[in-house]
Design a protein that fits this description.
Layout (H helix, E strand, L loop, with lengths): L1 H17 L4 E5 L10 H10 L5 E3 L12 H16 L7 E6 L1 H12 L4 E7 L11 H6 L9 H4 L8 H5 L6 H7 L3 H4 L10 H8 L4 E6 L16 E2 L5 E2 L5 H4 L5 H6 L3 E5 L12 H8 L4
The protein binds 2-acetamido-2-deoxy-beta-D-glucopyranose (NAG) (5 copies).
One 2-acetamido-2-deoxy-beta-D-glucopyranose (NAG) binds next to helix 8.
Family: Belongs to the palmitoyl-protein thioesterase family.
Catalytic activity: S-hexadecanoyl-N-acetylcysteamine + H2O = N-acetylcysteamine + hexadecanoate + H(+)
Organism: Lymnaea stagnalis (Great pond snail)
């Protein structure tokens, strides 16, 4: 009786010890910083007190305009031990806007333990639009001619240039984009690690894609769902993109595994994604 009881107690205790929480990492957007995710971190703590969380505190404000690979390398350096922890329950990445592309690159380059990647209004398939950021930062350019700046070697020093996706300049994109074209395995100089990138990406179990038509910055807004313009500026969905059809980085496989969860939220402006409780309830809470 008592031996059985203590065995049961031991079992219960060990259950408590090993049933840890996933580590939640929050990656902020362009021209912002870690405090962008204070509210969601607070909601995580209310729902699951003691959940380990990290709000990335690098490349804040104007520093967020630095080349994407430079950012990814340094950010990896600070969270690599979390992303590769083999004794934890894994990681949940919650990434906003440009931060979503930082996370895409981490998923491709690190042998990670990420269970779920929650992408909040991120230009995952690239950006092509006259956003307020573009008007402020590059007042002398418009979306139709800024490729002349971005699709150069020096233009690739700027984060926005790294994922600028001008649908009428496909060949220049492939020749110059050192970041998005490489992640999509579209670059003229083929990435020798493309298969490694895909294997790493497919360590992911779930991809949560949140975006909406009233975002106002991500253009087309469907880029948050991996949609993008074709050369006549018609938005084609993920399933019709070349890199989806040839499964260049694992998206098609993940979709066939049932791992992609897409949500459209009307009425949310770009600056408000991380301030909306319903976004937390729908896109983050079920994956903690
Ligand atoms: C990430 O950081 C770790 C630890 O600093 C390093 O060993 C690894 O090579 C880095 N990986 C990439 C892809 O940068
Ligand atoms: C790895 O996970 C274990 C179990 O959750 C935790 O105790 C440890 O602190 C984690 N290590 C790192 C570097 O996050
Ligand atoms: C892209 O690069 C190739 C190979 O260097 C070159 O032949 C081609 O003209 C370039 N395309 C453009 C639009 O510059
Ligand atoms: C873009 O897609 C639309 C709708 O499928 C199609 O009518 C149009 O021809 C396409 N444009 C190009 C350049 O492929
Ligand atoms: C990337 O593209 C190259 C050239 O087309 C191809 O050989 C390679 O298999 C592709 N990689 C993946 C992961 O599909």
């Amino acid at each position: 009786m008592s031996a059985a009881y203590s065995a049961l107690l031991l079992f219960a205790l060990s259950g408590i010890v090993t049933d840890g929480y996933k580590h939640v990492i929050f990656m902020h957007g362009i021209l912002a910083g870690p405090s962008e995710f204070d509210y969601f971190n607070q909601l995580v703590q209310q729902y699951r007190p003691g959940t380990p969380t990290t709000q990335v505190n690098l490349y804040n404000k104007l520093d967020s305009l630095v080349n994407m690979w430079t950012q990814v390398e340094k950010i990896n350096g600070t969270i690599h031990s979390i992303l590769t922890n083999t004794s934890s329950e894994g990681t949940v990445l919650v990434c906003f806007s440009q931060g979503g592309l930082i996370c895409r690159a981490l998923l491709a380059t690190v042998q990670h333990n990420v269970q779920t990647f929650v992408s909040l209004s991120a230009p995952l398939a690239g950006q092509f639009g006259d956003s307020i950021y573009l008007r402020l930062l590059f007042p002398n350019y418009l979306k139709d001619n800024i490729y002349k700046l971005f699709y150069t070697n020096s233009g690739q020093d700027i984060s926005i240039g790294n994922y600028w996706n001008d649908p009428k300049q496909g060949e220049l994109f492939k020749n110059f984009s050192t970041f998005l074209a490489v992640l999509n395995n579209q670059s003229s100089v083929v990435n020798p690690k493309s298969h490694e990138f895909r294997d790493n990406f497919l360590r992911l179990k779930n991809l949560v894609l949140a975006g909406g038509p009233d975002d106002g910055v991500i253009t087309p807004w469907q880029a948050s769902h991996f949609g993008m313009y074709n050369a006549s500026e018609v938005v084609l969905p993920m399933e019709q993109q070349e890199w989806y059809l040839n499964d260049a980085f694992g998206l098609k496989t993940l979709n066939f595994q049932g791992g992609i969860h897409t949500y459209t939220f009307p009425g949310i402006q770009h600056r408000h994604w991380h301030a909306e409780q319903k976004v937390f309830e729908t896109c983050i809470k079920p994956w903690l």
